[in-house]
Amino acid sequence: MRFIWHYLKKYKKLGIINVISVFGFALVELGIPTIVALMIDNGVMNNDAGYIYKMGAVMITISIIGVCGTILLGYCCAKISTCITRDIRNDIFEKVQSFTAYEFNRFGVSSMITRTANDAYQIQIFVNVLLRTALMTPVMFVASAFMTAKASIPLSMVILATIPIIILGVVYVAKKSKPLSTNQQNSLDSLNRISRENISGIRVIRAFHNDAHEQDRFEATNEQFTGYSKKLFKLMSLTSPIFFLLMNLAVLAIFWVAAILIEQGSLPVGQLVAFMDYLFHAMFSVMLFCTVFMQYPRAEVSAKRIEEVLNTKPLVENPKNGVKEGNHEGTLEFDHVTFVYPDGEEAILKDISFRAKKGETIAFIGSTGSGKSTLVNLIPRFYDVSEGHIYIDGVDLRDYDLQALRSKLGIIPQKAVLFSGTIEDNIRFGKEHASEEEIVEAAKIAQGYDFIMDKEQQFKEEITEGATNVSGGQKQRLSIARALVRKAEIYIFDDSFSALDFKTDANLRKALKRVTKDSIVMVVAQRIASIMDADQIIVLNEGKMIGHGTHKELLKNCQIYREIALSQFREEELANE
Ligand SMILES: Nc1ncnc2c1ncn2[C@@H]1O[C@H](COP(=O)(O)OP(=O)(O)OP(=O)(O)O)[C@@H](O)[C@H]1O
Prior knowledge:
alpha/beta; nucleotide-binding; transmembrane helix; ABC transporter transmembrane region fold; Rossmann fold
């Protein structure tokens, strides 16, 4: 409830209008039966047509006020509940932006989507019901209970007897529905995860003939989700008929007592009609309140799941008053860096030290799993070092404002990711206000210009979801162009040349040389040919630097580098270098 209150506070004005319309609505709902009673007892019984017309006019006026109140109430409830859901979604999205891979792994992408969409929607439903009924029902209940007691004390006693039974029933339903709601939301997470995996991995599933297995897996989880949903709906749908049964029994008892009272002459007929109306409102208020109470556990589960995301402290935090610029020398330095993944035990990088300056290309090579990607991922602070320091222009990365730090970098990740939109949009992602010339130049350096011009719409060609209408190499070239357009101080090519053919790779490196004179270029590669021109090459093995030098130096003094080189070139080719 604290969570919902936190968001409700923002909409105070609408909340006040909501409360006023609730009171107006209650006044109208209870005013009509009073007028009907007066009409019957004073007008019909005394044959006074003038009195009936007068009361009829009052009734119409009150009804019009009632309609206006109801419309206003509906408007306020809808506006507040949808705005709150929008705010929650925005907050989740903003929070998720600050997450590192560790937090993503902790929640899972599918669960994060369910929390943003489905859990936020559960809150919307609850807030809507809460504003519409939770405020109205106590008002209606107290007022109609007062009116029923005023109309007839003996008849009111009959209703009083049914209330404890209703309360007990509601508490029982609320207790039962909470674990069911938790299980339902968790199985929805699993269902989304399997759907996601199946849709994105459809080609692999088909290639391995695993369609039937995946179908079974999906059906089992779907069955589980349906099971929990059915139980929950059953529980909810049973409450309504049982409640009406109770209400009808109470009505029966009331008529029985009323018949005796009328016969004794102590209850006028008009009072009975009004009483039945008050009773209906009182009971209906209780029922509506029960609905809020029964929906509360579901909303509570969703609120907890959302709060879990919002209260997560990311491993990497933006420092307050972070440094925006260093000494402008154009240097990058690793100083005795050791790194252990947050959920790991062993160090993946051990005591790494090197220095690079602008205009230089520094390359990293080593067997798979030796820590190359981990090393370059420390520069944009996807993770923080466990020991040691990394400096850019003499400033420790942890002291930089995160946005300022990342704006210095042009990253080309191992797996190229493109977004839906045009080719131009995707390149512009690197620099929002890039001119057309800059975009074309970036595409040319990335060796992407020719294939872009071959497309029907050229730079305006739409990239489909999942970038299925471009090849692996084309995707990679677009992601290189996206990084180049920002004219970064440090470029990080994380095995980005592997999807390119040898000729394109060579042309790209040649073109890069021209435009990266004032930048540091970091290249992670598997192919010696891609890095042999680098100013420094670092050879990694099980997280340790086992070689550091130029291609020629390493051929002479690093056994592992020589072995890698010999696996890709003949001895004579290396000798001719
Ligand atoms: N998020 C993570 N949590 C825990 N361990 C990880 C994580 N990411 C990578 N690792 C481990 O860290 C080690 C180094 O991985 P990394 O991706 O840096 O290697 P690499 O040299 O880039 O390999 P490749 O050439 O195959 O890309 C591997 O043993 C890997 O299993």
